[in-house]
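Sample intake sheet
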Amino acid sequence: MRSKLEWRPARVIQIETPAEDVRAVTFAVEGLRSAFDPGSHTNIKVVIRGEPAIRTYTVLPSAPGTSTIAVKLHPNSRGGSAFIWGMAVGDETEMTEPENRFELSWRASRYLLIAGGIGITPIYGMAKALVGRGQSVRLIYGAKSRAQMAFADELGELLGDGLEAYIQDEGRTFDLATEFAALPADGEAYICGPHGLLEAARNAWRKSGRSMSRLRFEVFGDSGRFAEQPFSVTIPQYGRTFEVRADQTMLDALTEAGIDMVYDCRRGECGLCAVNIVDASAPLDHRDVFFSPEERHEGEKMCACVSRAVGGNVTIDTGYRLEARRV
């Protein structure tokens, strides 16, 4: 289980639209400290189908006492983005103090930043911080269309030739192997984007022979392989089966039902919420970046916070033993 989050009252004070289907919402947050590092994220309380829920978003560079998040209205959203898009100036909720698990090392001679779509949100803050400290930085930014590139104009002014846009509708895609080869030995790459981009980057980085400690990433969204579908989860040690809605994660469904779970990041990065798979009647959609492709193929474990069954039922072992809890 995770340590208790410290929630702070928050009120919407500004709403902007930096790109097609992207809304930037600024909150005045009570008791918020004045500064936080680029790549930080915050938790926010939302309401989905009339029920309270928690969603996590990157915090953009913000004025003291405020937190700004940029949210894409995603067709496969589990409800969080729809809630944020429905907010108006003056609306109130609660948010947590920003925390960072996607930190810049400040040790590299050159930085390569890679963003796919709304993955620009942590990368945008990193670019500003690196330029502000006079660091050598290049940003490659991919999106389906130019209209969907949030903060592109500002980043262009900031980075000049250090920014290169790759537009899918224009037939341009990343050449990761060439980008990685251009980095010096002590260079580092930071990447945020959809699951497929993360996998391609990890594979290209491994082939380059570079240390994996110098590739840092953050993932968001679905894998792109399957549409969201409801499924069920059976836990034999509890003798119960639980339903997981299409707009809900397995982790949320189980914790809401009172099942003890270990978890932390809720983004498929830390692996703490991984459960053992006993049996599955449907394909598994692994959306984490914790397990290797080989481990996902073996199908012995899955991260409850992001991964799903594609309909049907999956039987799992959470690792908890009821007998031990009764001692």
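Comment: The chain has a mean pLDDT of 88. Residues 195-208 form the longest helix (14 residues).
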